[in-house]
Design brief:
The protein is of the alpha+beta class and about 180 residues long. The chain contains 4 helices and 10 strands, in the order ββαβββαβαββββα.
Length: about 180
């Protein structure tokens, strides 16, 4: 686990699925998915091995305030150049504060530092807040936004990452950065 304290009193914590601080996130996500989709969604949260969210290919991130998890999320390797965002969450008592947007931004930053050039994700058709978040954060929907989400199933999105040191889209980084030698 590593943490970085922020001037506003919040702390970013890179951790693992087994950390007790992650339990509220997983419990609340499972309960929310079950309420929206009418089934026990806790199993969906265990669909991927915990190790997929560990460095060097992934990360699980919590935003803490006064030692309590208020928001979080993760990414895993989707392919050699793409990180897949998973489990973006804001504690129910802390919503409408822009915390999910901060989590997504920090996950994007970490993914770019780790060499990913693109982020891909899906969200459920009964999660309009998530759909709005990703559209507002500059993600491109890979589905017909005019269609009834229930007829589509999982809603896929993607976003090209930038090299934040130069502000260059990551897909163009190879044109401005010399190739690495292996």
């Amino acid at each position: 686990m590593t943490s970085v304290a922020r001037p506003d009193g919040a702390t970013w914590l890179r951790t693992r699925v087994a950390d007790p601080l992650v339990r509220p996130m997983l419990r609340e996500l499972g309960d929310e998915y079950a309420a929206r989709y009418g089934k026990d969604a806790h199993g969906e949260l265990e669909r991927y091995p915990a190790s997929e969210f560990d460095p060097p290919h992934g990360v699980l991130l919590l935003l803490l305030e006064h030692g309590e998890a208020v928001a979080g999320g993760a990414f895993r390797r989707y392919d050699a150049t793409t990180a897949e965002l998973k489990r973006i969450w804001t504690h129910s008592a802390h919503r409408r504060r822009g915390l999910a947007r901060r989590v997504v931004g920090e996950l994007e930053r970490i993914a770019a530092v780790q060499g990913y050039r693109r982020v891909w994700l899906t969200t459920g058709p009964r999660q309009p807040e998530a759909r709005g978040l990703y559209l507002a954060a500059g993600y491109t929907p890979l589905f017909d936004t005019g269609a009834d989400p229930e007829t589509i199933g999982p809603l896929p999105f993607e976003k090209a990452l930038t090299d934040r040191r130069r502000g260059v889209p990551a897909v163009e980084m190879s044109r401005v950065s010399p190739p690495e030698h292996t």
